């Protein structure tokens, strides 16, 4: 069973493993190449969020603004800014 990525670090780790980059890096730098620490740091900086991770205000904004905007193909600049600054 494949594990679900917690953040950007996990996704990068999966890509580097699938493409063979991980093996090359470990050949040159050894098993302690700093990849695991970098992966955790990226996961903390850029986590993948679910609706369970959102505040009630963010959920309401998503329902009131983002869902209708995506349904109609319009997401105004002011709405994007408001949403991303509230994260």
Gyration radius, rounded: 18 Å
Q: Give the overall shape.
A: elongated
What is the rounded distance between the termini? 31 Å
Helix-strand topology string = HHHHH
Largest sheet: none
Strand content: under 5%
Number of strands: 0
Percent helix, as a range, is 55-70%
- Provide the residue-averaged pLDDT: 82
Give the helix tally: 5
Tally of discrete structural domains: 2
Q: Which structural category fits the helices and strands?
A: mainly alpha
Poorly predicted sequence stretches spanning 5 or more consecutive residues: none
Describe this structure in words.
By secondary structure, the protein is mainly α. The chain folds into 2 domains: 8-45, no CATH class; 51-86, no CATH class. It has 5 helices and no strands. The protein has helices spanning 8-19, 21-29, 35-45, 56-72, 77-86. The protein is elongated and about 50 Å long. The mean pLDDT is 82.
Main traits of this protein?
mainly alpha; 2 domains; 0% strand; 87 residues; 68% helix
């Amino acid at each position: 069973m494949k594990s679900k990525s917690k953040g950007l670090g996990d996704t990068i780790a999966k890509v580097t493993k699938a493409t063979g980059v991980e093996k090359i890096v470990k050949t040159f730098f050894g098993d302690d190449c700093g990849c695991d620490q970098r992966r955790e740091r990226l996961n903390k900086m850029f986590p993948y969020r679910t609706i369970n991770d959102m505040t009630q205000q963010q959920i309401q904004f998503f329902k009131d603004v983002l869902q209708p905007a995506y349904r109609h193909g319009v997401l105004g600049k002011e709405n994007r800014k408001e949403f991303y600054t509230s994260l």
